Amino acid sequence: MTEQTEILLKRVNRASEKAINILGIAGILDFASFSKDVIQAALPDVNIKNPINELMDYGLLKSVSERLIISHAQIHNYARNNHKPNNEIVEKLANYYSEIEPKSYGLIDLERVHIFRIMEECKEREIWQKVIDLVWMVQSYFNIFGNWTDKIETFKLGVTAAQKLEDKYNESAYLGNLGTAYRALGEIKKAIGYYKQALTINREMKYQHLKGYCLGCLGLAYYSLNEKKKAIVYYKQALTINRLMGYQQEEGNFLCYLGIAYFEMNKKDKARKYFEESLSIYEAIKSPYADKYAKVWLNKI
Fold first, then answer.
1. How many CB atoms lie within 10 A of CB 204?
2. In this predicted structure, what is the pLDDT of residue 12?
3. Domain presence at residue 283
């Protein structure tokens, strides 16, 4: 420990209770800059201006581009280990981050490390509903920008939280998302395993929409393995569910997938039938897939 760090730690002991509380909140965030707003959200009944200025005067906090950061990594570790806030404050932090608009991608990217840190804090304290809230909030971000490792670890955490709460719907949804993440990485057999786990829950709980999603994904997974006959079985089941639920875009998609599978099996009459049906639906709903897929495949026959 450097002499400067020792001096800073002595100043922590001289700080007011309100200042210490703020330092503790900053300590369970990641060691990165954070907004003053998050502190205010955690301490809604406290005027945070003076204690923040106190911490800055002591050299424990510093300002970075209108945000704040703890001045030294060892001070951050000390605050995290010795001044942890209570569960009520952690829940308020989770609420603050989970209420970010899911498509505010720039803001989510800026706050990303803190969101993950609070997710982990909620896991450690077994505040499972807040874990689920945070996982759902970042899902749209992951679909656009997500690092696959972070995406998979986050959905696994979601599965754990859902299981702890006996929340079958979210457990199934996260298992399906894990399947899709692994399929995107080319780990098709692992993806199939997750889809089948999700499908078992969906059948048991009669979650028809999620059941249709998993059946369709299993079809796509088996198609990727060149097991077209298995893919067709799942496509047909997914088609039936989406048709019954009135999901016309998905109905058109599975008709097109069936056409592609039959085309590649050299069963062109069947392929034409499915492409024509998909084209009819796409045109009825003015889907761009009419020109992008159905017509393109029909022209190949």
1. 10
2. 76
3. yes
